[in-house]
């Protein structure tokens, strides 16, 4: 069984591979396609290559044969698809099989060339679509919803039993105030519990409501940590109903889109510079790079705890680097960054010796 770091090193080797002719074979089988269909195409290509004359075709025939053999060994398409690379490099036949690709493979590939096709290892199609958990909370009630590429979906709405500011006759002001605060805490806690229940793993969370109420909700830390660490901001919204969710979505959409664009740009730069050793990854190596002041830009996955992210942000600021960039798992390459690179990486100003 390969470890996450082993897989990262394997991906790095695949990306760096280069041949002096079109003899490197790449095969990706989509998650919803029968493996046998791609195997048949590879076997047909191998049979055709057998009729080619000249020594130059021998490495390509070997690559086709190795790819077909690897597909037969896999047998059936794994849950997220499979990727096979085969080719003669430095005189040796090399084969690498990814039955656990970083993301779901939605499109099959069969190509040969002087480099491997690595797009299937960059995450599944549609992975860069942001999903935002919407929470509107005000004294009279709350609404929870989801914003994604299909629009706004209302998930749950409920009323509160927090009494108004006017107390019933005969109640002392102090006793009424205490009861009101207790009911408000209970209501806020129920909103947090509902959010924990209905939200899976949103890329961001937006809080809406009347200014005082939404500020009190956030400061009271009623959301579970996994959601609290993803809060994109708080926004003024008056009504805890479906139209309030749509109002909140319209306000947060541009903010989340900008954040995702920044994350995608940073992650693309990380993978582009990876083969040349112009990046650092893993907590230990990145810590050394920060100590030497070598970090140009720091990338931290959303899976890293909020307290760790805060510490990293302070360190990169102290060392004169650019602002920390949080990488969502859902963007292209996000899963690969989390699983293969420990969720912590850096673009470097200069190389740091390990």
Automatic annotation (TrEMBL):
Keyword terms: Cytoplasm, Protein biosynthesis
The organism's place on the tree of life at top rank: Archaea
SUPFAM superfamilies (UniProt xref): L30e-like, N-terminal domain of eukaryotic peptide chain release factor subunit 1, ERF1, Translational machinery components
Location relative to the cell: Cytoplasm
UniProt xrefs under InterPro entries: eFR1_2_sf, eRF1_1_sf, eRF1_2, eRF1_3, eRF1_Pelota-like_N, Peptide_chain-rel_eRF1/aRF1, Ribosomal_eL30-like_sf
Coiled-coil boundaries: none
A Pfam family the protein falls into: eRF1_2
Gene Ontology MF terms in the entry: translation release factor activity
eRF1 domain location: 132-255, 262-352
Limits of the eRF1/Pelota-like N-terminal domain: 11-122
Family: Belongs to the eukaryotic release factor 1 family.
The name this protein goes by in its record: Peptide chain release factor aRF-1
Lineage: Archaea, Methanobacteriati, Methanobacteriota, Stenosarchaea group, Halobacteria
């Amino acid at each position: 069984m390969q470890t996450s770091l082993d897989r990262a090193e394997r991906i790095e080797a695949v990306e760096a591979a280069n041949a002096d002719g079109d003899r490197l074979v790449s095969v990706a089988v989509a998650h919803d396609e029968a493996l046998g269909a791609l195997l048949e195409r590879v076997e047909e290509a191998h049979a055709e290559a057998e009729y080619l004359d000249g020594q130059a075709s021998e490495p390509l025939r070997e690559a086709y044969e190795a790819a077909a053999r690897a597909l037969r060994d896999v047998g059936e398409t794994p849950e997220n698809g499979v990727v096979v690379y085969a080719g003669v490099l430095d005189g040796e036949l090399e084969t690498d099989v990814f039955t656990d690709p970083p993301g779901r493979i939605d499109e099959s590939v069969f190509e040969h060339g002087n480099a491997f096709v690595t797009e299937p290892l960059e995450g599944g199609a549609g992975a860069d679509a942001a999903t935002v958990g919407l929470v509107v909370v005000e004294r009279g009630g709350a609404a929870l919803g989801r914003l994604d590429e299909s629009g706004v979906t209302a998930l749950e709405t409920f009323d509160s039993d927090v009494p108004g500011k006017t107390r019933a006759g005969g109640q002392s002001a102090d006793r009424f105030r205490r009861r009101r605060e207790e009911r408000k805490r209970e209501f806020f806690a129920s909103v947090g519990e509902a959010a924990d229940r209905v939200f899976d793993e949103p890329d961001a969370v937006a809080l809406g409501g009347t200014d005082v109420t939404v500020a009190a909700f956030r400061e009271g830390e009623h959301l579970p940590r996994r959601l609290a660490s993803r809060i994109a901001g708080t926004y003024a919204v008056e009504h805890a109903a479906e139209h309030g969710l749509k109002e909140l979505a319209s306000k947060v959409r541009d903010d989340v889109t900008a954040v995702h664009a920044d994350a995608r740009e940073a992650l693309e730069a990380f993978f582009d510079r990876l083969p040349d050793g112009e990046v650092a990854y893993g907590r230990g190596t990145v810590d050394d790079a920060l100590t030497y002041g070598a970090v140009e830009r720091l990338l931290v996955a959303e899976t890293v705890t909020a307290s760790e992210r805060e510490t990293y942000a302070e360190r990169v600021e102290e060392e004169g680097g650019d602002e920390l960039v949080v990488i969502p798992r859902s963007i292209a390459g996000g899963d690969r960054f989390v699983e293969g690179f420990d969720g912590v990486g850096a673009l470097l100003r200069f190389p740091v010796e390990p």
